Amino acid sequence: MKHSSILMAVLAFLILSCGQQEKFDPKIIIAGKVANADSKELNIYLQQEIAATTIADDGSFQVSFDAEESENYYVRMGREGFNLFLSPGDSIFVEVDKESFNDSFKLVGDHAAENTYLFDKNQYYQESGIGNMMELMGMEKDAYFAKKDEFFATLKSKFESVKSQEKLDPDFIKLEEAYFEYQPLLFDTQYPMYHAYVNKISQDSIDFPKEEVKAKIASMDLGRADLLKSGPYKGLIDRRLSDEISEIMKQDTTLRGSSDGYEKARFMAMDKLIENPEVKDQFLFDFIKSNLEYRGPVHVKSSLEKFMTENQSPKLEAKLEEIKQKWEPIMPGQDVPDFNFVNIEGDPVKLSDLRGNLVYVDIWATWCGPCIAEHPHWDKMKEEYKDKPISFLTVSIDDSKEPWEKMVKAKNMDGLQWFTENAWKSEIAQHFMVNAIPRFLLLDKEGKVIDPSADRPSGKIRETVDKYL
């Protein structure tokens, strides 16, 4: 990599970004130069992908996207990735050699000090071994506490050193201080379960100060709206909610047998524990958003209506409405494009080949454990309905055909075994907004949508199938 050309690129980039910031453009710009790139694609994530660009032959790239507030983004370059804390109007330049990623990584621009610290923090997280959860949680209590305490003490010292030398963003400082306060406690809440799993013993037999940990969580202030971007803080509130939900469902046995019992118990727990409306709205939003993106408006109707009626956060309401609108093209009654696939014999096939039957579709991959867990239920249901006008179609979104062909043949998986190119970016995955698998679809005899996120074969899908047969 020629340093003179990099310097010129950085200077040009900074001149461009300064000009934009004088007008204050809410866009964030990430640009840079990558040597020895193993991938031509660069992706930006904020929970899900929000932007992408192509790395040019000379290693240069630039991507921009709109932002409303400071966020912690994840940038992925092939097999490598890193976090960037950025605010609206920020511009940052990244220089890295993929063959010596950690040693060559450099940043210039807005929040460069914060993001250099984040990179070093992640590197230490991996090198210290604290990032290996199974190894950490498998340790005996005293060894676990010693390793955990050493990690946080060393990292806190590094942070204080950076803070004393650089003028860091106040919001960044607040989030890092929340990390040091709440992440150790979050580890403690996870220890009994993971330790029992790793060592194959009962949680009840573990010597650990569980009541002390529980008391610390109970004493937390659950109304810190200023910490809603802190993962550890939100994780501990989720833990508190989970404990309360379990207690509610123990006391009210009718909730356990109800399809929406957990949802009702969660709302009750939030009403009881969280008084700050901004915090409550955020946790309701997170719960609904996750289900809305995976199951669609039909399956979250009651909780969505509750939020729209009670919330005091117009921005969150608008985000849910935006997600809801994306589902319109695949709602019940909509036509489905005639996607192209290849079957296990290698022949080209289309959805229209199955017209005249209901079509129950399983979108899966060989690496997906929950997908594999549904296969016995799928086979059982397929046998139950073998004389009915319904086709059971499995569609693999594996990255390549080889693992799919190997598993289908090794397990003698019969029936309609189809494969689609481009995995997550395949036509069917993109059209049905598949962001998690297994994902099931139910189509009518004319190829129209009955349910764009149908129940699993281990669930209550038979009620819907029988209704349409």
TrEMBL record:
<feature type="domain" description="Thioredoxin">
    <location>
        <begin position="330"/>
        <end position="469"/>
    </location>
</feature>
<dbReference type="GO" id="GO:0016853">
    <property type="term" value="F:isomerase activity"/>
</dbReference>
<dbReference type="InterPro" id="IPR013740">
    <property type="entry name" value="Redoxin"/>
</dbReference>
<keyword id="KW-1015">Disulfide bond</keyword>
<dbReference type="GO" id="GO:0017004">
    <property type="term" value="P:cytochrome complex assembly"/>
</dbReference>
<keyword id="KW-0413">Isomerase</keyword>
<dbReference type="GO" id="GO:0030313">
    <property type="term" value="C:cell envelope"/>
</dbReference>
<dbReference type="InterPro" id="IPR036249">
    <property type="entry name" value="Thioredoxin-like_sf"/>
</dbReference>
<dbReference type="InterPro" id="IPR050553">
    <property type="entry name" value="Thioredoxin_ResA/DsbE_sf"/>
</dbReference>
<keyword id="KW-0676">Redox-active center</keyword>
<protein>
    <submittedName>
        <fullName>Thiol-disulfide isomerase or thioredoxin</fullName>
    </submittedName>
</protein>
<dbReference type="InterPro" id="IPR013766">
    <property type="entry name" value="Thioredoxin_domain"/>
</dbReference>
<keyword id="KW-0201">Cytochrome c-type biogenesis</keyword>
<dbReference type="GO" id="GO:0016491">
    <property type="term" value="F:oxidoreductase activity"/>
</dbReference>
<dbReference type="Pfam" id="PF08534">
    <property type="entry name" value="Redoxin"/>
</dbReference>
